[in-house]
Specification:
Length: 53
């Protein structure tokens, strides 16, 4: 996700907190925050190493 997309989602939550998209984004953030084992699929890690910055 790009910084531009993150900024848009933050603005959406601030200005339309009851929208369906804002609720979905909030739920996703809460799920990520509660992820205890911090598990990442090895294939995803490999792709990030290969294509990520």
């Amino acid at each position: 996700m790009s910084l531009k997309q993150i900024a848009f989602r933050q603005m959406l939550i601030a200005y339309a907190p009851d929208s369906i998209q804002a609720q979905g984004d909030r739920k996703l953030a809460e799920d990520i925050d509660r992820n205890e084992p911090f598990s990442v699929v090895e294939e995803l890690e490999d792709r990030v190493e290969q294509y990520g910055d």
